[in-house]
Write a structure and sequence with these properties.
Distance between the termini: 80 Å
Structural class: mainly alpha
Number of strands: 0
Largest sheet: none
Low-confidence stretches: none
Radius of gyration: 25 Å
Number of helices: 2
Strand content: under 5%
């Protein structure tokens, strides 16, 4: 046992009992269901690269409900923020 050495994990030769490998890949690979359809999932990039990929993914999304949903969420969050800071909303109402 060295002080500066890190401990290695044990490796086992385990094969699942009911797994048939018929083109399904590795059963131990953790992968999200929609990873192959997203541009933002992949190798680590800088902050600018991640932001640009997310923006491209958002612009090229064919679903208009997502854009509307994002705008509604932003609007609700702005109203909650204005309520927290006690902003007087009566200036927007006619007299």
């Amino acid at each position: 046992m060295g002080i500066l050495k890190t401990r290695k994990n044990k490796k086992f030769s385990y094969t699942p009992r009911y797994f048939d490998d018929k083109g399904q890949g590795n059963p131990f690979e953790i992968k999200h269901k929609f990873d192959e359809y997203r541009k933002t999932v992949g190798p680590n990039k800088g902050l600018k690269g991640k932001f640009n990929d997310a923006l491209d993914d958002y612009k090229n999304n064919p679903d208009d409900n997502v854009n509307r949903r994002v705008l509604i969420i932003i609007g609700v969050l702005v109203l909650i923020f204005l309520f927290i800071i006690d902003f007087d909303l009566s200036i927007f109402l006619p007299k």
